Amino acid sequence: MRPVFKIWLENNGKVFGEGPLEILQKVEKTGSLRSAAAQMGMSYNKAWRLIAALEERLGYSLLEKRVGGACGGGSKVTPYAQQLMKRYSELKEEAEIVLEKLYLKHFEGFKT
Amino acid sequence: MRPVFKIWLENNGKVFGEGPLEILQKVEKTGSLRSAAAQMGMSYNKAWRLIAALEERLGYSLLEKRVGGACGGGSKVTPYAQQLMKRYSELKEEAEIVLEKLYLKHFEGFKT
DNA sequence: ATCCATTATACTAATATGAGTATAACGCTG
DNA sequence: CAGCGTTATACTCATATTAGTATAATGGAT
What we know:
The structure is a homodimer. In chain A, α1 (18-30) packs across α2 and α1 crosses α4. Helix content of chain A is 57%, strand content 20%. In chain A, strands 1-2 form a two-stranded antiparallel sheet. Chain A contains four helices and four strands. Chain A has a single domain, classed as Arc Repressor Mutant, subunit A. Chain A has helices at 18-30, 33-39, 44-58, 79-107; strands spanning 2-10, 14-16, 63-67, 73-77. The first copy, chain A, is α+β, with helices and mostly antiparallel strands. At the A-B interface, β1 and α4 of A face β1 and α4 of B. The structure holds a DNA duplex.
């Protein structure tokens, strides 16, 4: 038996979490939302709607989007999004450690 | 913006969490799974299948079930389930406190 | 002007989830 | 032994979520 947890941010509905973090990280690497989605095995459509929904609830844009041009365009993570990513990922990392400890504390010697 | 989290236990699939905890608590109060489900606005059918699935994955029974008899029967939470409930609810309570602190630490002064 | 890869968005289809309905079996009580 | 309210379980139907498909629009490069 093992503990599992998820932590995310809400404003008026979900605003940030593990999935969005991974998408933005891949956008940083690839330079476009389309290829980020492809790398995750996710349809571009889904990724786009997800980001759009988050942006609307946040009131800030996460991606600076260029459409058209030499290579069709691309997306860049905004400074605001970079902050969110950094803070959220650190929060999550520490939460993992702390929760694992809490689990051991409370479930030590369990199983009758 | 606020943090939200969920924590649950897995074995071969979900084995315990907030929903099951609430059901079992209501069984303790009402003496039957049927009325527990009713109090939660959940169909008996759903509640029964949920508990049955958990029991199978755990390898232990959570409810001691009597069928037939004076008042039709009823269910009682097993000692094993009581331990699970106690440990899980304490774990969750402490996790809430700790995670709220972690959130404040990491998101202090956020919003640009 | 055409091509290209991308963003942007609407519309449809598949799937998963959950709710509801139905029915059997059980066993105490009167 | 008939009635009652419960557990136990199968089966169908509605609904919500998600995935997929299609199509436009953009703008620099050739």
